Amino acid sequence: MSVQVVAAKMAEVELKDVPNKELSAVSPRTPIAEEKGLSNSELNASAPSPTADTAVVKGDPSPLSSTPNAVKMPQASAMKRPDPQQNGGEAFVNRDGTVAEAPRMKKIQFADQKQEFNKRPTKIGRRSLSRSISQSSTDSYSSAASYTDSSDDETSPRDKQQKNSKGNADFCIKNIKQADFGRREIEIAEQEMPALMALRKRAQGEKPLAGAKVVGCTHITAQTAVLMETLSALGAQCRWAACNIYSTQNEVAAALAEGGFSVFAWKGESEDDFWWCIDRCVNLEGWQPNMILDDGGDLTHWIYKKYPNMFKKIKGIVEESVTGVHRLYQLSKAGKLCVPAMNVNDSVTKQKFDNLYCCRESILDGLKRTTDVMFGGKQVVVCGYGEVGKGCCAALKAMGSIVYVTEIDPICALQACMDGFRLVKLNEVIRQVDIVITCTGNKNVVMRESLDRMKNGCIVCNMGHSNTEIDVASLRTPELTWERVRSQVDHVIWPDGKRIVLLAEGRLLNLSCSTVPTFVLSITATTQALALIELYNAPEGRYKQDVYLLPKKMDEYVASLHLPTFDAHLTELSDEQAKYLGLNKNGPFKPNYYRY
Amino acid sequence: MTEPGVEAKLEVKQASKEFKESENVAEKYSAMTVSKNSDVNMNVGELSAAFTAVPAHKSVKKIQFANQEDKQEFSKFPTKTGRRSLSRSISQSSTDSYSSAASYTDSSDDETSPREKTQVNSTGSSDFCVKNIKQAEFGRREIEIAEQDMSALISLRKRAQGEKPLAGAKVVGCTHITAQTAVLIETLVALGAQCRWTACNIYSTQNEVAAALAEIGVAVFAWKGESEDDFWWCIDRCVNTEGWQANMILDDGGDLTHWVYKKYPSVFKKVQGIVEESVTGVHRLYQLSKAGKLCVPAMNVNDSVTKQKFDNLYCCRESILDGLKRTTDVMFGGKQVVVCGYGEVGKGCCSALKALGAIVCVTEIDPICALQACMDGFKVVKLNEVIRQMDMVITCTGNKNVVTREQLDRMKNGCIVCNMGHSNTEIDVASLRTPELTWERVRSQVDHIIWPDGKRVILLAEGRLLNLSCSTVPSFVLSITATTQALALIELYNAPEGRYRQDVYLLPKKMDEYVASLHLPNFDAHLTELSDEQAKYMGLNKNGPFKPNYYRY
Question: Where is the S-adenosyl-L-homocysteine hydrolase NAD binding domain positioned along the sequence (chain B) (predicted)?
């Protein structure tokens, strides 16, 4: 039975015009520099690194100040875009007769995207596209800074001949000798990822991935290493490359190589290195992958471009980033997707942890670390009451702050009202608030005009996405003085002496000034592993050439693997109860449209 | 009024309540079946059998009440039982205002059946059938009071009055007839529709409100305490008139749709759409649709976001405290409470109890919801692990036998047991009807059950729904439902040819958002508007919809 949601006509209009001009207007070189700066400062957030920071801040204010917007814009649009698409997948999952919301708009998404796709080599537009917005996209900002990365060795890993202790040389990393350090890192991570370890134990005998040849492209960190070793324990052969040129932990890569994994990655790859690594992963005599695990869609893209034949053997793609998912939907729409793909980004568990729970903690953490502010009695305005906004509000309310909310969506607005928050327009309260937090996903939510009217000492920060929400560029005018008081904290001083405290230059506070808990990464990794298992073991015909959401049952399994962490005891249905509810005792327990 | 009179009234009221709850079983049941898929074929089959059998008593009975006691309770009712049980929506806000359902003019002084009376309203029309047209003024006052609480509907009336989006619409409706519905009906009239109305429940009609509606010219066929036969007669009178053919149907429970479908299938040629608000009715529509027999578009308003959130999360968050206070005067601070189930209802209960300082733990079967409970700071336990030390046990699972006799035996003295979920299946009350236990009714809806050793367990509403039995449904919630219905009618009536086919649809998100926005002024809430630039950046229309359909809120 097909139940349809009526998606009003406007669908078509929705996403047509996306800023593309701005992108092309930017010269290729600057953005690269800018991006380096950005990544550095983000990566080094925990370890103070004045050089990177100041470089960005002080560097020629006029041209630089305008670039971040331009560079970041496509990323933002990429984030927005996939949304409507996902219904394609959802509609399928729901096909079995539940009330499903029918696919809405297909056309819409990639009016400009295509060009970008082909623009490749410069890597600018694209790179900015391919960082997943999902915080847990396996990039652990906390531990990404390799402590052995002293760069004492300037030889490119590509030129080195290295062998692991077993004589295997099928890898390319910075320095195989760091393997011991990496092993220690991995062991620490294992402690923090009990769910993945539990999965490893439960399925080790069964070896559900026996015969699977997984080629992966993700951030290479200790947490990913735990995932890879789990896959391997479940029977899979893995070859891995990094999905980000900066995020690789060299010693972890070394430990993996030592353990027999073919890893091609090091910190600080060049654009050319990046593609070379991916190519080495895929292009090998006598070995053809049959599963792809991707983060950002680069690997899929490469195979699609260079080795289309390979798809004949591939049973499925698991993609975890918003961008990658977006690209898959695009392929699917164009009828060019020739294998089933699994969108793990939108599984319930992952979404809740990425947004609601993660932000609920990081808003307090980020503000404390940067400003040591006391929350009790402070007047705070939170712009946007989506998952992130809900998390921020709950945390701040719990600390005794007086919280106001601004919202554009009446449903979310009503939720805010019912949760006891005053719903206001920003201008109505801007004069009296002590803290302004943006989490809308929109641009220019806090404008210069609003900034002008803030009271002295007001803290302004962004929890939403990218750096577009606060119009920081408008603050780069001669009459205002910028004073960097500590890493990630700027005082912007008006001629009359009023100061505004701007955090992370309007970039994401939760990425720049706070950490992503391993628990969240564990959820992501477990979801990925289960998606691989599901795709690999699915009977012929269950998945067609389309993009799917993780089946609810798997989603529930991810959650259940994490329950022991809380010492939570799940109740089981009795046979009689299961029958009464018309449910299987082992789930799925909810219809697909259930909102949680 | 004499003492016995009062009691009689009370009895009726209680009867009707019991009634409702037994109905809920089927409701929830069917709700489940709708959502679960083919692996529940059995239920679907049985229910569809229930649907096709015209009065459908027998087959329905079979499904719902595995539990023996229910059956007895059930058969206590005169006629009408089986069928009625299907048709009350589980949604609390299904327009039956428990708070005001007792007509205060309903002194039953007049025993003549309304069907045999000839009544004329002040404008000379006699195209209606109500208890007593003379009560119109009382009814008018009721309606005016309700209007105060339903400002959203009134503002919709004001905004769209000039436009008359329902001009030409001939709406035939079958809902509870209460002051709140009357506000809805009058809004529809103000927007240009002609309405004929009947009741979807034999007990819930407020006679004086029906009279007030008849007085202003709405053809109403309903009174409190109809018989089964009256019920169908009223529906028939609504539909079957010379020179008037309905082109819209507003239904609550699916009875009207069913009747039209059985008796006047040709009416569907002119019908532009059905708006259905109850779980049951929606379920029946899906079945029709699945069987390929649905010949007009239908709108499922039960599952709109706004309505769902208010029916469950917000409503229960308040009624759990209200219900417990009214019945037991318990103090919540520091009490140990176990809440069974962490769905929307459970989330509401937990947050309310936590806010009052209770120590709350949760039982759950669904790992995702369990994880949510963990992250919200509630200990997830199995009931058996904590049952000995709990001061209160609250069930909201939608399941049966969640609290069994064995657990009741192990509870500590003074433990309060109540049900917020559905029906009366969650607590195994039947198992407490054994000779060694003494039942003591200490006040209305509160029973002390005394064990041989003197231990007492306090059972509320005999295991039926606490929020229906011991608490009220706020008008605000009813307002949300009514506004949703009105907008669904407008949407279906004005949709361009081809937008809706012969299928069941959810309310478009834009309409859902509009319902919410109409209620914002109640909170003095100021919605921010997107600038053109921002709208473009987000790829959104400035006026919504603001979220993709799969958004979870």
Answer: 312-473
Rounded Cα distance, B178 and B147, in Å: 12
A157-346+517-570 matches A358-507 in fold: yes
A72: nearest Cα among A506, A514, A516: A506
**Token reading at A134:** 């999902």
Nearest CB to B314; choose among A418, A556, A572: A418
| Pair B121, B214: CB distance under 8 Å | yes
Q: What is the pTM of this model?
A: 0.74
CA distance A508 to A42: 9
**B221 and B128 Cβ atoms separated by less than 8 Å:** yes
| CA–CA dist B94, B482 (Å, integer) | 9
For the record, the structure tokens of A535 come out as: 């795709």
Rounded (5°) CA angle B1-B3-B5: 65
For residues B30 and B45, what is the distance between their CA atoms, to the nearest angstrom?
11
The amino acid at residue B256 is: L
Hey, what CATH topology would domain A157-346+517-570 get? Rossmann fold (3.40.50)
- CATH no., domain A358-507: 3.40.50.720
pLDDT digits (tens, 9 = 90+) for B133-167: 999 999 999 999 999 889 999 999 999 989 999 99
Query: From the CA atom positions of chain B, what is the Rg in Å?
Result: 24
Q: Which of B514, B530, B548 sits opposite A104 (nearest CB)?
A: B548
Residue closest to A506 by CA, chosen among A351, A322, A383? A383
Binary contact (B366, A77; C-beta < 8 A): no
How far apart are the two ends of chain A, measured CA to CA in Å?
23
Greater confidence, B74 or A183?
A183
On chain A, the residues whose CB falls within 8 A of the CB of B374 are: 563, 566, 568
Question: Do residues A143 and A113 make contact, with C-beta atoms less than 8 angstroms apart?
Answer: no
Query: Is A442 within 8 Å of B385 when comparing Cβ atoms?
Result: no
CATH architecture of B114-308+473-516: 3-Layer(aba) Sandwich (3.40)
Torsion angle of the four alpha carbons B438, B443, B444, B449, in this order, in degrees rounded to the nearest 10 = -20
Strands B446-450 and B438-443: antiparallel
User: Would you say A135 and A351 are in contact if contact means Cβ atoms under 8 Å apart?
Assistant: no
Q: Rounded to whole angstroms, how far apart are CA atoms B109 and B132?
A: 11
Chain A: closest CA distance from residue B181 (Å): 23
Question: Are B506 and A569 a contacting pair at CB < 8 A?
Answer: no
Mean pLDDT (chain A, rounded): 78
- Report, as an integer, the average pLDDT of A499-522: 88
Considering only alpha carbons, which residue of chain A is nearest residue B518? Answer: A410
Distance from CA of A587 to the nearest CA of B (A): 7
Which whole-number Å values give the CA distances from B407 to A458, B245, B383, B385, B462, in the listed order? 55, 57, 8, 10, 16
Domain boundaries, chain B: 114-308+473-516, 315-470
Residues of B in contact with A422 (CB under 8 A): 525
Count of CB atoms situated within 10 Å of the CB of B353: 23
Distance to chain A for B1, nearest Cα, Å: 41
Question: Which of B34, B37, B340, B371 to substitute to test the interface with A, most A CBs within 10 Å?
Answer: B371
CB pair distance less than 8 Å for A411 and B308: no
Pick from A346, A562, A584: CB nearest B371: A562
Q: Does domain B315-470 have CATH number 3.40.50.720?
A: yes
Out of A149-153, A576-580, B300-304, B416-420, least confident range: A149-153
User: Which one of B380, B503, B545 has the shortest CB-CB distance to A8?
Assistant: B545
**In 10 A of CB A526, how many CB atoms?**
27
Q: How many CB pairs under 8 A join A and B?
A: 265
Whether residues B286 and A3 touch (CB distance < 8 A) is answered with: yes
A527-555 burial by CB neighbour count: b if 16+ within 10 A, else e? Answer: bbbbbbbbbbebeeeebeebbbbbbbebb
Cβ neighbour number for residue A124 with a 10 Å cutoff: 25
